[in-house]
Amino acid sequence: MKNPGRLSKRIEIWGKVEGTNILNQTTLEDEKLKEVWAEIIPQTGRLLNQPADTFLSNVTHKVIIRYSAYPGLSPEMWLIFKGKRFDIEYILNPYESNDTLEVFARQVI
Q: How many CB atoms lie within 10 A of CB 20?
């Protein structure tokens, strides 16, 4: 990584984890998996008109993290930053260098 100081935001990686309930049944529960340092770059934004004069904002971001911070990251997981959820669209490993991961995520407000 050329400039490690650019990873100045602390984000949380969340996912579904198997657990058991009081009836000894297997369940999937939301759980924080790890906190990592990241750079968050807004990419695109779109305002959608909804019924009853309401609006929906659809904003995409590129989140850059170190590859070694969480190499098992998958699109089924999501990110939390300052209480806002970012759903992962896709993940790139630039040039297959295993240096950083570029995570393209969507925040719907």
A: 10
